[in-house]
Amino acid sequence: MSTPDRDRLMAYIDNELDTAGRAAVEADAAAMIEIAALQRQADAIRTLFAPAAAEPVPARLDPHRLALVRNRQRVQAVGRAAMIVAVLGVGIAAGWMLRPSGEAPALYDRLIANAVSAHTVYVAEQRHAVEVSGSDSEHLSNWLSNRLASKLAMPDLSAEGLSFLGGRLLPAPEVAGGRAAQLMYEDAAGERLTLYITPSNGVGGPALDTVRFGVDTAVYWADDIFTCTLVGPQSPEAMQAVLTSVAAQLSPGQSQRGYRDL
Questions:
Q1: How far apart are CA 194 and CA 192, in angstroms?
Q2: DSSP assignments along 89-110, one per residue
Q3: What residues form DSSP beta bridges with 179?
Q4: Is the separation of the CB atoms in 122 and 195 below 8 Å?
Q5: What pLDDT shows up at residue 256?
Q6: Given a cut of 60, is residue 99 above it in pLDDT?
Q7: Which of 53, 157, 197, 218 is the most exposed place for a label (fewest CB within 10 A)?
């Protein structure tokens, strides 16, 4: 091999050649010199950019958050456009719909996005789905209550056909205290639901809301003490029934308010 073939060299480096192919490359001195140079170049690139590769993805680029923002902007645009058509006519409405949108996501929208992201990460885990097992629910309740600075019960959802697997502490820099709790449940079919709970101080937004994310549904609820986002693959109606039980146990005595589907 007087002139090394670049594709063949790359196949060698990627371990895609058979035994005879690798032997032929290794017998060619020029090819091995070129391979050594390519490997040194790859090592230099990894060394140069390794710190950037290790950095977390910025929150503004989180795919669930971007999807949530797009979904809300689309729904809001349709509703407002209908109102403008009725009042001012089609021409003005068309101009309004073409305007650039610079609205930042509301805080509660970001909490819903955080809940979906955490759900996606941890429901796929088997051995490490939770940090503290549901069998130690008293310790889990005390620990999370201390971290959230509010008495947090572990809702019993056995009447809804759900077993309590346990929970964990998560960062939530957007809210007071900077912490969130995630509780995980599982039904008889092995489908998992998660509750993402934060203090409600300073959050604002609606009392109840429902958002679809592909196969998953996120149902958001808030009162004067907590915000709670339930995420799972069940139907919105089933999720709302579960959340009604959750709300009654998290904050007994709080009035129940109607849901608004998006």
A1: 7
A2: -HHHHHHHHTS---PPPPHHHH
A3: 171
A4: no
A5: 42
A6: no
A7: 53
Are residues 241 and 201 located together in one domain of the fold?
yes
Do 63 and 47 sit in the same domain of this protein?
no
* Reported confidence tier of residue 131, pLDDT bands at 50, 70, 90: very high
Closest of 116, 120, 122, 119 to residue 68, by C-alpha: 116
Q: In which residue are the tokens 């796929």 written?
A: 124
136 contacts: CB under 8 Å, gap ≥ 6: 166
Q: State the pLDDT at residue 183.
A: 97
Residue 258's CB is within 10 A of a number of other CB atoms, namely: 7
- b/e burial code for range 71-109 (CB count within 10 A of at least 16 → b): ebeeeeeeeeeeebbeeeeeeebeeeeeeeeeeebbebb
Residues 61, 105: contact at Cβ < 8 Å?
no
Whether residue 142 lies inside any domain: the answer is yes
Q: CA 179 to CA 131: how far, in whole Å?
A: 15
Determine, yes or no, domain membership for 255. Answer: no
Least confident of 15-24, 28-37, 126-135, 226-235: 28-37
Collapsed DSSP state (helix, strand, coil) of residue 210: strand
Domain of 185, in residue numbers: 114-250
Residue that is last in its domain, among 19, 39, 54: 54
Tokens of 145: 């209550």
